[in-house]
Amino acid sequence: MTELATSPAAADEAPAVEETRGLWVDGWADLRRRPRFWIAAALILVLLLMALAPSLFTSVDPAVGELSRSRQPPGDGAIFGYDLQGRDVYARTIYGAAPSLAVGFLATLGTMVIGSLAGLLAGYSQGWADSLLSRIGEVFAGLPFVLGGIVILTSLNEPGEIVGAQELVFQVVLTIVVLTWPVAMRIMRAAAIETAQQDYVKAARALGAGPFRIVLRHILPNTLAPVLVYGAIQFGVFIGAEATLSFLGIGLRDPVVSWGVMIAEAKDRVQDIPWALFFPAGFLVVTVLAFVMMGDAVRDALDPRGR
Amino acid sequence: MAPLLEVEDLRVEFGRGPETASVLNGVSYHVDEGETLAVLGESGSGKSVTAQTVMGILDLPPGRITGGAVRFRGEELLGADPERRRLLRGESMAMIFQDALSALNPVYTVGFQIAEQFRFRRGLSRRDATARAVEMLDQVRIPNAKQRVKEYPHQFSGGMRQRAMIAMSLALDPELLIADEPTTALDVTVQAQIMDLLDELRRERGMGLVLITHDLGVVAEVADRIAVMYAGRVVEHADAATLYARPGHPYTRGLMDSVPRVDDVAGAPLRPIPGLPPSLAAIPDGCPFHPRCAHAVDRCVTEVPALRELGGDHQAACHFAERFVAEGTDRPTTHEVVSG
Amino acid sequence: MGRYTLRRLLQLIPVFLGTTFLVYWLVWGLREDPFAGKCGQRECSPAFRAALTERYNLDDPLIVQYLKYLGAVLTGDFGQTFSGTEVSTLIADAYPITIKLAIVALVIEAVIGIIAGVVAGLRGRGFADTLVLVSTLFLIALPVFVTGLVLRQVLGVDLGIIRTSVPANPSIGELIVPGFVLASLSMAYVARLTRTSLIENSRADFVRTAVAKGLPRRRVVGVHMLRNSLIPVVTFLGTDIGALMGGAIVTEGVFNIRGIGGLIYRGLQQQDIATVVGVVALLVIVYLVANLVVDLLYAVLDPRIRYD
């Protein structure tokens, strides 16, 4: 009889925890062997440093422009040259990291939190909550990203209105989150449905575990991996999205210094000041690349099917 | 005359370096025309890898053939021209798999997949090939074959899918059929029907049949001879009646004791083989079965037993095979197992 | 199949209503004064205001305005701009070039993406596979406007191979570079999707069966592996058509193409709300219809879906 008495409890605890822990440990062991992961990690570390402590990299004020040195090419004193207003492109590129990364971070966080909660609710409850959330998600997913971004951002501000830096960042983040949470929801929902059908979840339910406990202990640990991988890749994509919106003149703008803002300012003067475009664009691409590479490596490590 | 199929001292490894797994360590068996050889063993014993090597469908890499020979009607197949081997597949030797649902392509109709062979191996027109596919489905007793030929695999029941798989493998009238656990995924009642069908088709066509299984009941019913595999070797080989009455290898005996029998006294305990099959990356020295063997002595740990001739085409790879054969079992004969 | 189509069609209706209402609310409902800045520095004249209020039913509650507008759209009337031009005329002028660009982009991403994916997936680990993985990584990391600006500068200004500004009625040839820019991101996804799906399928049991049947290698790959692997790719391409039709704003801006994206962009900059709502409503329809077609195509390609 002792056999029978202990085994249901084991079904309640062990498999979910063991399975997940195995996944993460194996994933980490695999990750450590991938050069792609280390390159991405090193790049992200440098970028974080740039965003948190720009003064380590430059002592020049990125906002000060002297018209006398307008359009001076890279050389002594300013290795990236000066822009039209005579501002130091290197200093601006360094200071541009913070808003770009901030938008990427906040938008990823928002999308994942909202999308995951909605996805868990939809995937676990099924029924009417699922139908409702799925339809709402489709409504937002029905708007192509750039189009939706333009509509939302132009509606938020009256023409000619002066908006503060923090509010601008908030608006851009809000726009990205509103337009992309359905994707995160779909991923989480699919994973939750799959996990909910596993025998150990059924066993836990049969033993009378409450919905909160089942979601927290059994479903969430097994659905986190695909959402996290999506998040890591989207971090990079969102930085690119911010730059795209800023490029169109509706995202961040002066007084905020971000790579997108710099590119938007420089795009019509490519002929005479190419360096004002080249350096922020280069940093932007490398940053997005670092995050996409990170996401790629993490996905390959956690999902052995693609090997 | 050379046997239909002869496998000799076949050796296959997977992986490289310290993680190398020796999957086959000198497998030998043969099948003659019109006879059924059952290959018996636990999962991981190398039954399926041997079959895939014979068919030439083993993935290389990760697999690596390191030695031995596979001869079909005396013709050496290992190292033969790939095109020659392709032409043998379907035409001379065919294979059916355990899980017919995943072995059939989900996006094509069953008829298309059978007709394909007539079209691309026999050069028949689409229409003629489909007519032949209907005939094949009829032969494996799928009712209403004319309609079902247009259906997709997921619309078939498990037993019907395995019948369709059999029809497909027999389309080009092969002389040798390898059935890799053909009934494992099926319900018990359906298992018997499929086995009967296979046995009947073999007799009608005079085919050689290699029946890979871990199910002693299936073996008892249809096998002429049985090869028992363990850790990538054939450890015992005999005709079915001899093997049941006088197994020469403790592993064979263990397999028999771990299956409930109808004549068992109610409540009598089963005697499973203790332990697990060895990891193929670290096969124990000496007799690979010694860690699980109740009769093991020092010699078993140090010396690999060779396949010993026990008379009457009965061989076993155990130092004490003669003793076990002399002891015999309290088992009834094969026939009694089936009907009892 | 008929019931499946009907069910999917019915599911589109709430999504269409929701999305168009969302846009309508954003552009009309969120603004305190829809005429702010419309008449230069001065306040708009009461007569002008009255006329526009009348034209756009601004005195009604938002939901009533929306329903009236929707009724008009469904009869083919996309409304008028502030200056009185029919929005449908603007759309008719701009849409052909957008469609042309979308088709060029679709062909480029399908052809290059699938070929790259097949080469990488079939050859297994090696130079081709690494090349495809690394180059798709870069394509994913490059924002479209950066690709566009760089190609315009290098090919247009420095080398003089293409014109930096695409003419009003461009030929296919003149749209190749913009089409490539527009397609670049999806091309990378197509290549990766094809590769992954091919690798997964190459290990499938049914491929082993096809080999065991003695079929020629060409047929095993072409009929049994590719057909199954391309199902998700075709689905992706279909979804992308909808996005390409409406998402060309950046590319059209960089290459000065006077298509539908430019129309929306100018409409927003000039605060021409009617244009925006009209075009967005149309694009949402296109997007949803494209998705519906993809769903149906999926059911055709994968017989297992039909009977669910």
Automatic annotation (TrEMBL), chain A:
Residues 97-295 form the ABC transmembrane type-1 domain. CDD domains: TM_PBP2. Keywords: Cell membrane, Membrane, Transmembrane, Transmembrane helix, Transport. Its main location: membrane. Gene3D superfamilies: MetI-like (1.10.3720.10). SUPFAM superfamilies: MetI-like. The chain crosses the membrane at residues 37-57, 101-124, 136-156, 168-188, 227-253, 273-298. Pfam families: BPD_transp_1 (PF00528), OppC_N (PF12911). It is found in: Cell membrane. InterPro entries: BP-dependent_transpt_permease, MetI-like, MetI-like_sf, OppC_N. It is a multi-pass membrane protein. Belongs to the binding-protein-dependent transport system permease family. This is ABC transporter permease. It comes from Actinomycetospora chibensis. The lineage of its organism: Bacteria, Bacillati, Actinomycetota, Actinomycetes, Pseudonocardiales.
Automatic annotation (TrEMBL), chain B:
It comes from the Bacteria. Gene3D superfamilies: P-loop containing nucleotide triphosphate hydrolases. InterPro entries: AAA+_ATPase (IPR003593), ABC_Ni/Peptide_Import (IPR050388), ABC_transporter-like_ATP-bd (IPR003439), ABC_transporter-like_CS (IPR017871), Oligopep_ABC_C (IPR013563), P-loop_NTPase (IPR027417). SUPFAM superfamilies: P-loop containing nucleoside triphosphate hydrolases. PANTHER family: DIPEPTIDE TRANSPORT ATP-BINDING PROTEIN DPPD, OLIGOPEPTIDE TRANSPORT ATP-BINDING PROTEIN APPD. Belongs to the ABC transporter superfamily. This is ABC transporter ATP-binding protein.
Automatic annotation (TrEMBL), chain C:
The chain crosses the membrane at residues 9-28, 97-119, 131-155, 175-193, 273-301. Gene3D superfamilies: MetI-like. It is a multi-pass membrane protein. It is found in: Cell membrane. Its main location: membrane. It comes from the Bacteria. SUPFAM superfamilies: MetI-like. Residues 95-298 form the ABC transmembrane type-1 domain. Pfam families: BPD_transp_1, BPD_transp_1_N. PROSITE patterns: ABC_TM1 (PS50928). Keywords: Cell membrane, Membrane, Transmembrane, Transmembrane helix, Transport. Belongs to the binding-protein-dependent transport system permease family. This is ABC transporter permease.
